[in-house]
Amino acid sequence: MKHLAPLRMRVEKDVITRVARVLVGKGVLNVSVGQQVTPPEIIGMATISAGFRTLDLSTLLSVSPQEVEKLLVKKIGQRIYKGELLAFKKGWLIGGKKVLTSPTDGVLDFLNNKTGELKIAFLPKKVNLPAGVYGIVEVVDKERGQVIIRTQVTRIYGMFGSGRSRDGILHILGKKDGLISKSAIQTEYDDCVLVGGSLFFKDAISACISAGVNGIITGGIDAKDYKGMAGGRLVFPKKLDNDIGTSIVVCEGFGSVPIGTDIFEILSGYEGKFVFIDGNKALISLPSPLSSSLVKIKNTKLPELQNNDLILDVGQIKGDLELKSGLKVRVVGNSYLGEQGKLVAINDSLTLLPSGARDYLVTVETARRKIQVPVANLEIMV
CB neighbours of 83 closer than 8 A, spacing ≥ 6? Predict the structure, then answer.
């Protein structure tokens, strides 16, 4: 008897695609169509003259809102520079010391004594726009302050997510099955994309927003927390435009689920490297770190753009495939959720499950053990 299971792509290596690099404010672009670029190359410069940053100092210092003001090193109205000491809390013999530095240049504009939040108004500053990738410039749109580059990336497809397209330096917080709380989030992670473990707690997500973290990659998330990000509905908003101030890609599902080995091993190889994350598309793009990728980039043509609009044709492979021994599979049911392994056997007869339903069981050999799960609880990985 044939047994079918859904086919889902999780990782797609060495894809030739396009990426957009956009100025954060008014400025100039200094590249031309057809130009070859490298990751550190500055392709534009903008000036940021307005805006502010809010820091939840009560949470970051682990004190009540009323205690924040006396821990500030500078007074409201004074200027501060990125990396300069902002607040200091003395510790006891067993610890508790907290040292906070400013994540940006600015002026201490306002302190809310009821919430412990500090508003830092930005100082006008010039911001360079690096290419971030090896590639060929295809579009220079001065009106939008946008450059579109043909490049090579490795794509990781998450289950769902939230947030617009962002980028930053990838930083791994710990093991693939770690639980991430607010204590793991530091102010120096501003503009970074953080890789957590099996779950980001709600307070950790809030701390990421306060610290200016650009992206979060996690194995699992609490359904209630995700519902708040997705406009109050448990949907996969890949065609919506949700944003809470940082972009999140959930790789495995709801609850505490370790990031799959296939994804975590690839992310580990990009520690300290520049990456793209798009929560609303549940997509992570890892630019090739090799200059040799330019050969393939030059020799690959992509469909023409319409009106200089970058619309990525992304999506996981859909459809069903017959289950056969030797296939790589992933468990999607409640028992053993997220486990990956090789399919080694399929039972010939139906088995009565604890739920009262009957289904065919299959044996999956993981890195640690052999497990038996119903056919309905499997997906085939490619």
Answer: 101, 102
**258 neighbors 219 (Cβ within 8 angstroms):** yes
Backbone angles phi, psi at 69, to 5 degrees: -55, -40
Per-residue pLDDT tens digits for 121-134: 988 878 899 999 99
> pLDDT digit string (tens) for 18-33?
999 999 888 999 999 9
Cα–Cα distance for residue pair 163/354, rounded to 1 Å? 39
Q: For residue 72, what is the enclosing H or E element? A: none
Q: Burial of 170 by CB count in 10 Å (0-12 exposed, 13-18 middle, 19+ buried)?
A: buried
What residue has token string 């590249």? 31
Q: CA separation (Å) from 184 to 59, 194, 245, 268, 303? A: 12, 10, 19, 18, 43
- The helix/strand/coil state of 219 is strand
Distance CA 135, CA 272 (A): 20
Tokens describing residue 200:
């980001």
- Amino acid at the residue 42: I
Mean pLDDT in the chain?
Answer: 88
Q: Which 3 state secondary structure label does DSSP give 310?
A: coil
Per DSSP, the three-state class of 210 is helix
What are the DSSP calls for 133-179, one per residue? SSEEEEEEETTTTEEEEEEEEEEEE-SEEES-EEEEEEEE-S-TTPE
What are the structural domains, with CATH classification, of the chain?
52-123 (2.40.50), 163-281 (3.50.30), 323-381 (2.30.30.30)
